[in-house]
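Contributing new records

If you add data, match the layout below exactly. Sequence lines come first and carry their own label; structure lines follow with theirs. Keep one chain per record. Anything else will be rejected by the validation script.
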Amino acid sequence: MSFLYFKYLPLALIGIIVLIYFFMSFNKKYFSVIEKHWFFKQTTKNKLSNFFFYGFLALSLFALLDLRGPVENIESNIPDQKTIIIVDSSASMLVEDVRPNRYRKALIMARHFIKKSVGHKVAVVLFSDSQKRLVPFTDDLDLLDSRIAALETFDITSGGSNIAQAVTESVQYFKTNADNTKNIVGNILVFTDSERNDENLKAEIPDGINLAMVGVGTIKGGPIPIRDRNGTFRGYKKFKGEVVTSRLDEGYLKSFSKLAKNYKYWVALSYSIPTEEILGFFKKIHLDHLSKGTTQIRPVLKNFLLIPAMILLFLSGLFSQAKTYLLPVLIFACMPQLVKAAPDSANLLAAAKDTAATYHYLLEFKEGELKRDQKLKLAEYLLKAKKSKEAKTLYQEQIKDFQREETNVLFNYGTSLLASGEVGKGVEVLHGLKTKIGKDDLVTADMIKTNILLALKQQKNKKKKDQDKKKKDKKDKKKKKQDEKGKQGKKDQKKQQKKDNKNKKNEQSKGKKQKDKNKSKKEQAKDRKKQWEKHENDIKKKRKMVKIPAMIKQILNDDRNLQKQFYKTKNRKKHSPRDNKDW
């Protein structure tokens, strides 16, 4: 844990000292004036407020230095693949042992690879005695195709093959374009006839570079034809008076496996194009790199300074303005209790009065001193106290003549019947009361209707609950019987299993862990594959949507013709001795 801009720490310290000194001087002058004119001294609360504010200033300035944690390596996805296509332009590539010849066959395969290379950024290199980079890394298929098509009429009647040097310089090209030179990744695809001029095979290829070579030609080989600009045949190339025969050296292709960790080669004949195999080789290794790619970061830890700074600022404001906030906070805190207090007190008082009256009537009822109207009042109190059965009994004893009884007594009697579960009788009493009052008392009629509907609904819910309970009890009993039968049958099996499981327990746990580990790896691989396939499909859709205007096609054609004069990869001078191979 350290500051990213530690070099500015002295400036931060100076800033903190200056700010604190300024605020302290201002407060000192301010309170000296207050004490002089109004005789008020600085309070402890104000001093604490200033102290917390100074702490806030200090932490805020330290946060500007950008506090970071130690370096951490995190996994990151590797971007699109970078591929360098190297095409051999030595004279031996004119041999016609494959159709139309080795050189044009290599160009056909290069163009086919580019059309299929979804998710690749491709650079094109031409090499003979030396190498020439034709196109830097790009995913512009039309530009790449145009540049390679321009090579078909390129004059390659002389020039040797320095394959190792071409590969080495291509690796260097990866390094110059990489953000992290220690972790270089990419692909090199070489089209060559493996006719070598270099005696020693030396090349340093990092482990992150995948090397693929396509040998163009046959082991039998053939002579190198020489033609003029018009395509007229002028004979075969000779060396020291003898016709040169160029053959594919497969052993030389195999020798590159010692230089590159990830290496594979193919031999292409007249009617074979190994594009899919090459793409599969690159893709497999690229998907592996998706899980291995790492990026170094330093986590930002400013919050360890800013959070305490905000707390100190809050405390500073709280101490400086405590009186301002005190009254609203107290009112807000006590408001819910004040709102609840009024209705609760009224209810409590009414309940206390009812309880006292009920207790008084019960004592007199015990002594046998209650009159009929007092007994009916006691029944009403009991009904309010949810003692519906006791209230029902009192009403049944006192009601003799239904037609002469008061409306409220009959209403309470019917309600007590409903509450005690005698819905049928209660409905009958209330219905009779409704008939008795007719249309004279609509309020009571509505209350009767409401009570009847409520009682019927409660009865229905109760029946449903009882039925559900019976079903559940029946199901539980059945399950209990099955469990008892199963337990009885499993007792002997468990004893035997315990003996067997003692030795196998550790092995199973290890196997499970390994299985889960392998499963997680497989799932990660599947996810990476799906992500890459989705990425490829998106690129394909974009390419289909793009149409090249006629003007751009004309520009590409002009560019193709212009580039021909720059494709020079031969180092040999006109009058140099001919003792060395130049094919």
